[in-house]
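Deliverable D5.2: sample structural annotation.
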Amino acid sequence: MPADTTAEDAPETLERSRPISIDDLEKRADWIRLQTIDLIDSAGLGHYSSTFSCAELISVLYYHTMRLRPSQPDWPDRDRFLLGKGHVATGVWPVLVDLGYFPESWLEQFGKIGSRINDHPNMKLAPGIDFSSGALGHNTSVGVGMALAGKLRGQDYRVFEITGDGELQEGTVWEGIMAAGHYKLGNMILIADANGFSGAGPTSGAMNIEPLPARFESFGWEAIEVDGHDVKALVDLFDSLPENGDRPIAVVARTKKGHGLAMTEEAPQAWHLGLMTPEQRDAAKAEIGARLK
């Protein structure tokens, strides 16, 4: 949790590239997986394997990379974060609690009628959410608008978006990608959680989107491939991004759907949306928890 702030002039700011060990970031990713299991168990249904595939991405972005001010969620100079694949919000809620955006008691209401936090994020209900998501395909264009606004106003915030390779089959996403290249939005970083699956099955079977790096580059983006589960590689990559480039950046994070738990890795599609039995839940928590000792 951030330290309490007593100064009258400004709340505490979590600066970019703040120090944290690689080991702590790796453990935080597994903590996100454990929290996801508990939240889905409480709600009665949820997305396991999609959240597990981007747990390291969420860990590095929130605990190391992005400039944030949890006590002032609407701070104009914060880095923006957009969750294109909104069904992995389950893995973000515990992080927002941990950073101080809202109380832990909110987690007890996750997925229940009247709750401010649910399976997909709602910007009107939850602090720390920069744009709502549910139907796929909208957040990239919204991110372009945010990045362009920052550029026109002379602000140095960045816009980060996590999208899935299933969402990259949406035409509206590519309209946004085209616009970002046209306006040379170097303050926009799109991270593709390229795990090879969508809700309907392998992405290659529905609509091929590869080669992703070449496609982004053809729209004027800089494209970088990385192992999306290699925390050190992610830290090094995000730390190396230019502050004032003239090209938007696509990080193609090669991931495995269901990563971090044998059961979900072996049957990623079966665990896209589901509910573990009490026995499966306990075994899953024991397997993941053993890495945190």
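Annotation notes: DSSP finds eleven helices and seven strands in the chain. The mean pLDDT is 93.
The annotation will be released with the project's public dataset once the embargo ends.
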